[in-house]
Each structure stands twice: as C-alpha cells, then as structure tokens.
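Obj: model holo form, ligand = 2-phosphoglycolic acid.
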Amino acid sequence: MRRTLIAGNWKMNGSLSSIETLINGIKNGLAEVTNADMAVCPPAIYIPKVNELIGDANIGLGSQNICDQEAGAFTGELAPSMLKEFNCRYAIIGHSERRSLYSESDELVAKRFAMAVKHGITPLFCIGETLQERESGVMEDVVSRQLDAVIDSQGIDAIGQCVIAYEPVWAIGTGVTASPEQAQAVHAFIRNKLAALSEDVAAKVQILYGGSMNAANAAELLSQTDIDGGLIGGAALKADDFLAIGKSA
Ligand code: PGA
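Output (holo structure tokens):
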C-alpha cells in the first residue's frame, strides 16, 4: 500500500518571520493528519532555519534544487552533501519553472536526479505537459520523453527511488486544476508505462499530482487510484490550507 505524501513547494516565497509562523502552524495541526506524510521545500536560504524549526516533528524537508556535481566551481548551485547536512530528505528536480524559465534540459534533469539518488536524497521528479502539447495530442509523448530521460540513463530501478510529481503546466499557479479524471488518466498512463518495465517499481512508486491543488479539491483528487499525494504551491503557504489538504487524504 502506497503512503500519501503531501509536499509543499514554497517556490521563492517567505521571510524569516513568515516561515516561522508557517512551520509552527503546521506543527500545531500535525497530529490531525493521520493518513499522509507531510513535507516542505523552502527556498534554499531558509533550509537551515526550517530544519531547526521542524526539530523532531514528523515533517520531511526538501530542497527546490540539487547540483548535478559533487562540489566545486558551480556558482549558485547546491551540493548534495550540503543538503544532507541540513537533513534534506527530498529535492525537487525538473520542475516546469526550472525547465521553462531556466532552460533545464531533460539531460540536466536526469543528471541532477542521479546525484540525488547517489546521496540518498529522494528526487521529487516533476513531469508534465503544456496546454499546447495537450491540445495538439502529444501529452503522452512529452511525459514519456521526460520519464525516459531518467530511465534510459539510470535504469528503471532508479524510478523506484524517487517520487514522481505529474504537474500539467497549464494547471500550475493558474487556479485551473486538472479534473480528477484527467489527472487519474495520466497517472495511470505513467504507472502502466513503468509496469511494462517493472511491475514492482510501478506498484511501489508514489505519483503525486501538482497544479492548483487546494483544500477544496484535494479530497477528490487524492481519492483516485493512482494519485498518491500532492505537490502543492500556493496552498502550501498557509498552515491551515496545507494541513487541510493533508487531512483530506
Ligand atoms: P500550485 O503549484 O499549487 O501553486 O499550482 C504547484 C507546483 O508548481 O508545484
């Protein structure tokens, strides 16, 4: 049985005071979240502070990036060993904002993925199509290509060590959510594709949905057979909203 994971992607939001309010708020309501694991991915500069604020509460910590190299002359990047020092369990990799605004290729995404796995950090591996790709009927090709970038270079077993986040680009930050049926159809497509290579990996890998998930629509999305949680942007910035999503699992 796959656990549900609700992960917050704070993106480039927050301040020293707001993150304290947010983490304390999540900690206060955490006991009521009984059917999901909760995790937060703050901006890198706040990772040490959030790690401290979390203390021994059962909240997973993740980064929004990870370098594809161990250390050295890579200005602006985050070494996996540094993330480990601050207890990062997850790293978001391949988010559509990184792919589109910072030109991250499938190849670079796969290299970041490999480095995370090597260091025991679980990739939150984001894939998803644009509206134009969906409307022109190439959605499955796009999602397959993004998955294959990792499978071809690292093998199917590497997928068993990540959490996949299916995030249709047209649903991110737009308030337009994929319907539960639309999301379930793509999640099933992903799982079937993986099952053709390994039944075991397909059965165990968590596939999260991301894209305007909130307290009002989470329960229906999370009740779909192949949806194992959510990667939450906007609704992860308020403790009550974020906890409500966790409680609806
Ligand atoms: P959103 O973002 O929930 O604000 O749509 C999701 C994401 O980008 O991970």
